Fold:
Amino acid sequence: ETGVTQTPRHLVMGMTNKKSLKCEQHLGHNAMYWYKQSAKKPLELMFVYNFKEQTENNSVPSRFSPECPNSSHLFLHLHTLQPEDSALYLCASSQDKSGSVTFGSGTRLTVV
Amino acid sequence: AQTVTQSQPEMSVQEAETVTLSCTYDTSESDYYLFWYKQPPSRQMILVIRQEAYKQQNATENRFSVNFQKAAKSFSLKISDSQLGDAAMYFCAYRSGSGANSKLTFGKGITLSVRP
Structure:
C-alpha cells in the first residue's frame, strides 16, 4: 500500500471516552502532521513531527496527545473531548521543505 | 505570520468552460512555495499544482494552470475545459521555504460546482 493511511475513517465517542487515531505513511517521508478541519474554517495545523521529534504544537489543548514512535507512524490520543472537537482530522507527511505535502483521507470524529 | 485569503466561498462553471479561482497571500519571506489542493467528497486532499516563488514561469498541469503575480502576492488557479469530476473544494496553500519541513498554511477554501 502506498500513500498516507488513516484509521478509523469514522469515530463516534463520548466525552468520557479515550480513543486513538492512527496514521501511517508509506512514502519514506521524514515529517508528519496533524491538521483539524472544521466546517467553514480553514484547516488548522495541530502538530508537526520531524524525524520523530515534535517541532510544533499550535496551542492544542492537552486533551489531544500526539505520539510519533517512528517516521512512518503517527498517533493522536484523545481523552475527555468536547462536542466542539468534532471535526475531520487529517494526517499528512512530507519529505522536505520544497516538496508537496501528502494527505490521508482523514478521520471524521463526532463527540457526543 | 503568513496568511492565505480566498475571498470567494463558492463558484459555479458550465461543463467545458473555463473558471478562475482567486487566492492572495501575505508574507515577508522571499523563498516559499504555493499550492492548490482539491478536496472532493471523498475527503482526500489531492495536490493539483505547485509553484516555487523563485520561478517566474507559471506552473501548468494539463488543464490546470496558475497566474502567479509575486509582487501582488496573488496566486489564482485556472481550470480549462471544466469536467464534472472537477467539482470539489479547492484550497490555496502557502509553505515557507525556510526550515527542514515547514507547515502548510491554508485558505478557507472555495466550493466549485460544475453544471452539466
In short: Residues 33 and 48 of chain A are 5 Å apart (CA to CA). The interface with chain B takes residues 30-31, 33, 40-43, 45, 48, 50, 55-56, 88, 90, 92, 94-98, 100-106, 108 of chain A (CB under 8 Å). Chain A has a mean pLDDT of 91. The two ends of chain A are 33 Å apart (CA to CA).
